[in-house]
Amino acid sequence: MDLDSLKSSEESLDPQDWQALRRLGHRMLDDMFDYLQDVRQRPAWQPIPAGVKRELKKPLPQEPHPVEEIYADFVNQILPYPLGNIHPRFWGWVIGTGSATGMLAEMLAAGMNPNAFGGEQIAALVESQVIDWCKEMLSYPAGASGVLVSGASVANLVCLAVARNSESGYDIRKQGLQGAEKRFTLYASTETHSCIKRAVELLGLGDEALRMVSVNADYQINLVELQECIAADRSIGLQPICVIGNAGTVNTGAFDDLEALAGICQREELWFHVDGAFGSLAAISPSLSVLVKGMERADSLALDLHKWMYMPYEIACVLVRDPLAHRNTFAENPHYLARAERGLASGSMWYSELSPQLSRGFRALKAWFLFQEHGIQKYARLIEQNVAQASYLASLVDDSPFLERLAPAPLNIVCFRYNPGTVDEALLTRLNQELLIRLYESGIAAPSSTTLAGRYAIRVANTNHRSRKEDFDLLVETVVGIGRQLESEYKEQRLPNI
Amino acid sequence: MDLDSLKSSEESLDPQDWQALRRLGHRMLDDMFDYLQDVRQRPAWQPIPAGVKRELKKPLPQEPHPVEEIYADFVNQILPYPLGNIHPRFWGWVIGTGSATGMLAEMLAAGMNPNAFGGEQIAALVESQVIDWCKEMLSYPAGASGVLVSGASVANLVCLAVARNSESGYDIRKQGLQGAEKRFTLYASTETHSCIKRAVELLGLGDEALRMVSVNADYQINLVELQECIAADRSIGLQPICVIGNAGTVNTGAFDDLEALAGICQREELWFHVDGAFGSLAAISPSLSVLVKGMERADSLALDLHKWMYMPYEIACVLVRDPLAHRNTFAENPHYLARAERGLASGSMWYSELSPQLSRGFRALKAWFLFQEHGIQKYARLIEQNVAQASYLASLVDDSPFLERLAPAPLNIVCFRYNPGTVDEALLTRLNQELLIRLYESGIAAPSSTTLAGRYAIRVANTNHRSRKEDFDLLVETVVGIGRQLESEYKEQRLPNI
User: Fold this and answer.
1) B141-200: per-residue pLDDT in tens?
2) Can you give the pTM of this predicted structure?
3) Which residue among A43, A78, B104, B213 is least packed, with the fewest CB closer than 10 Å?
4) HSE-CB of A128 using CA atoms within 13 angstroms
5) B35-52 pLDDT tens trace
6) Is ipTM strictly over 0.90?
7) Where do the domains of chain B lie?
8) CATH of domain A377-491
9) What is A114-374's CATH number?
10) Distance CA B382, CA B471 (A)
11) Contacting residues of B for A316, CB less than 8 Å apart
12) Is B150's Cβ below 8 Å from some Cβ in A?
């Protein structure tokens, strides 16, 4: 571009007609409020028509396109086909629900659009406040270090990176794992979430380093086996560094005995990490907090706020007891990130030094809004409500002649299957797989599945603030109805793949 | 909670008064439109008053708080004190600007609030479309694998993880780095961004494994030294695995000779990764694309969309030539993530298998909106505009008797300092440090700083779609004015810390 012609040709991405875009924004907002208010009237899930998939696919746009038309495509092609997790009868995996205020806060954050990496800016102070609230609600030490990240997978990765670096006993940032004298080992139960395995792999420790300890009938880590395993590893020259405790396992919502694990880690001088993705929130409920006794002794803790605090994606929190260990794992000080005593490059909180992210959005803002909007006591009641609803579902399952519960339900997760009274395990698996698909296709409800001791289970994980008692009645009624239908199709041999 | 009392006590996080929240939402939207429209009238940055910092700090909220009051606090305590990167004269670090439509798209995404981990849901299809557009605009192979992540730091981490695992030659996920026979090495120039070092550390490879190759006068990697370094490492029994090329360095916007690096990697059988955080976007401009020649041959590529595509935080893209290598680095298949042929758990795109994140927000939606709203040709013009503006600034610096340019400005970054004609380097550093702080405090403009060959530089990185030619005139005028003021204070010894 010719410099002389620069000014006359200058353009920006701001709208040419601010009023028109503002009007469209108000229409979008109204549509989304309708969408949230009416969610109970829509199916929990529906398949995406092949035609929509075709229409969605477009070559790289070359020329500007009216934003009203893009929005029309959004309304027709995107809005009707979500995962479904804002629906009152969505209970798949462990997925939060979001809220209208959360949506508004995300709009504000995207309008301000700071890069919350550090410096003297308000986003850093808001993040600091949210992290302080997380510590306070979990009874975690006030002097601990924290950072908000995308989710528990990354939170666990961050914590295990700090554990690895702190416990290695040499300059592992410089020399890497290939500079180690001994091989490192970590310990967790077989019920531990796969993100722990993925973190261990990413950190270069290797799966073999992650010792999977068996669980008892309540799906809690076997403490005797854990200690035997640590001793055996030491005896063959390995270097144990970390035990991972579960506050709420993904399969059944089980809690390891965190107090016992804290004691073992203290005696054995190991890093004690707790994966509390959703279960750590039990701490805020007077009736459930006994489940997480000992969690406050953890060296590091990972929790999601987009699961059992129902905030919009993405937001999770890392807490590390030793702030220096946390910072020493991630801080870099290149010239282009130099600090100053005053001005924009001052400020005491550089969150870019506490996780793999340098550029960071303002995810703290929604949490700042939502903690205040509801207050922690309401969150506690909702968590208790979800647990009571799960107990209610467990009782419905137990009372039904057609349903079989497959695991204890100590928290908010219920695993069960339709079983008309056969012992043919392969048949039961195929039957329940088809049943779950038809349940999805009915649009009535959306649990997910797992396999427990070889048995395929329909798995309801309730981190849904919109669910009501009647929703679980409808679930059971529908599951039994589909199950009986499948049985009759099976008997009439109209069901080739069962 | 008593199960019988469950129904009567049930509550949710939905507003008790939907109409009131809807009205507040419309007010927020209007306020944010005003905020964006008037941004040029506000200071580029202003310090946070101590009183605001005090007021912001609160104990964990116990009881619900009216959302109107929370919003009032937001307006008074948060909105006025951002980093400043949406302002037309913010040019610090490499930080994008955002846009009004981007803000609206983020609201829609947070309202739908899917977890875009996988399954049969529209968010996966939208993400697939955005990734296809990224490949097309960068002339990267259509068969490549891709995933959207938080930023280039994580994108580079993902790419280097794939490089490490693919090139190791054994089952590194299982055995870890301690199972390697030889020590691995990677190669990059001394101008490479610190996130590469951080990724190498996190992956357990150790800093020592990252060979920092010197640069020429244009801040490009020294190709002869690179090849000598690879050969020397091989000769002492090390195992080179990867070369990292820069498409736009953070200090000066330099481009390594990517075509030459691609050739070296081909001959040496090394993984070729390109960090194209912002510079890769040169590919979309007919006049700049020559700079990234050879980038399309990379085995992996990291780019941000929240930098030089000006999208709201957070959004970046990973591209990996070999889809299987990408998937094999991250995929886990626990029972609770089982797939199905139909229903919610079907679908062919499981983005949770392509990065450390399992839970994932709908970051693709804003990109889907913005690619279409503007079209790639407008993005190309804006990038060219930013480069022309940087050239204009460089010419102003070169024409000023008080300013000294400290590096070539091949792209959008200009490094310079105020220099009244002294050779006292220590004095120049202190003078320019104070000058930059006073520039911030003036509210006029917000560049950042770096150090080049020991010389402290004010660094203007222009990834700002709102900047105009006149903004650079004002910058130079202000810098010279502050500089002359500092000189006179210095002469009168009124400036103790210079």
Assistant:
1) 999 999 999 999 999 999 999 999 999 999 999 999 999 999 999 999 999 999 999 999
2) 0.97
3) A43
4) 19
5) 999 999 999 999 999 999
6) yes
7) 14-43+47-80, 114-374, 377-491
8) 3.90.1150.170
9) 3.40.640.10
10) 16
11) 359
12) yes
